[in-house]
Write a structure and sequence with these properties.
The complex is a heterodimer of chains A (about 290) and B (about 280). By secondary structure, chain A is mainly alpha-helical. In chain A, about 70% of the residues lie in helices and about 0% in strands. By secondary structure, chain B is mainly α. The chains are: A mainly alpha (about 290), B mainly alpha (about 280).
Amino acid sequence: MRKGLSEKKLAFILIIPAIIIIFAIVIYPLINALYQSFFDYNLAFPHLRDFYGLGNYIDVLKNGYFWQSLLNTVYFTVFSIGLELLLGFIVALVLNQEFIGKWLVRTLIIIPWAVPPVVNATVWKWIANSEYGSLNSILYTLGIIKKYRVWLSDPFWSMMLVIIADVWKYTPLVAIMFLAALQTIPDDLYEAAKIDGANPLRRIISITIPLIKPTIIVVLILRTFEAFKVFDLIFVMTRGGPAFKTTVISYFTYLETFSQLNVGRGSAIAYIIVFFMSLLSYLYIRSLKNTDNY
Amino acid sequence: MRRIKFRLKRIFLYIAIIIIMFCVIAPFLWTIISSISTNKELLSVPVHFIPENPTFERYKAIFTSDDTKVVAFKRGIINSFIVSSGVTIVCLVIGTFAGYAFARLKFPRKNMTLQFFLFTNMIPPIVIIIAIYFIFSKLDMLDSVISLILLYSSFITPFVIWMMRSYFVTIPADLEEAAMIDGCNRIGALFRIIIPLSTPGLVANGILAFLMSWEEFLFALILTTSKAKTITVAIAEFTGKQYVDYGLMATGGVIGAIIPVLITLIFGRYIIKGLTSGAVKG
């Protein structure tokens, strides 16, 4: 048997294209951004480029708008993921039953997930339109609101609508992941609990949730990192307004860099985001280890 | 009594299903309806939910009109096709090779390398976009379809590596070993045995890579100005402040979503398998 290449060399050849593309396009810019973050560099004055040390970081951390946008991001993330997990779980429980047209329902339910975020934002922006939107029309006809509202100019409802758009897109995905986990639970566990006199709610709390806990945690982690990156919905639906209420951290960085043209400060914000993300993943990994132990 | 209880349960179940399906379908269906409603009906108060004179004029206009926004939109569709197909090919080739190495070969620092790929997958695009913008502008790579393909590929490849690795692990190693005893070398066994057996995994990953590239917005928004604009940027322009043609906005949205939606409906089985495989094993 001719061996040709050694295993080590073959592995190297197979992996090197991936390493090259990722180093050139992700890692090098990542390091470059760190370097830029130590300079006072504004594109409006391109010839002035002074070393500024940690100045950009201090400026950002002293900036109230930065904290506001971080708070907005946390608000968006907690609410949208909370709703997605709750609704996704309920939908998964329903879809796990036997019913006519199950195949069709399971096929169609994925549609929102396939809709690109920019289109998703367009859809909800149109629904929430203050003059011709269907939301106003339906609520007015039902007598829930007395007069048409400008939803996307309302500090509370603008954020809620962004959250609703996100929940609409991602609940089906969460539901499908939960459904796959539910299908791995053997029926006799439920039967045994039934014989022991456990009611349906009790069965969900003491059998279903513990058994799909690993899936819940994976979904939670995946969705948190995605939600933290939210940008498209904000850009199309609210542009961060009204009064900064929906400016999330990605949008804030975008504004600082590409409208203020402040490259140094934008890079510093980027690195502060990396810091928060790392903290978050550290916390998640720790909680994962804890669940493994018990 | 038992029978009545059972009946009631059934009724509640079907009500729940109807509510779920309504929430899932209504928003997008409403956009489709808006796109074929006449302007008069679109701007009527209260809203007309069923158009009296459905019209496909806007779809025709999008493919024939000379309006600059519409021309940009057409170009966006073509660009998005080129970019997404390019990314799919690059990611599948690079991701399959690397995924195979991680699944089957022994080499030093294997776990560390795999973790490195996972780490790059977590970096938010906004973090590197500033540096990318400067590097690309120095290299004269702004507003180019090729740049977008490279950029998206580098973000999607780690995901494909991870998924293909998990797929290859499920294929028994005996199969390749048998082929290697019969005189195949490793590469031969990879192409003749492993890749044909991994078709479902390749299809799922290819589709996911295509969809992720199709819906990308932030990079395209910042790095393209005219000739390489993608469909998402074009749609965002339809919704811009100076442009208040709601009908055209809805039509653009429907066209931008119809391709991913159709792909998902056709290949749903593969995609769901791909999406859930990682999460359920935990």
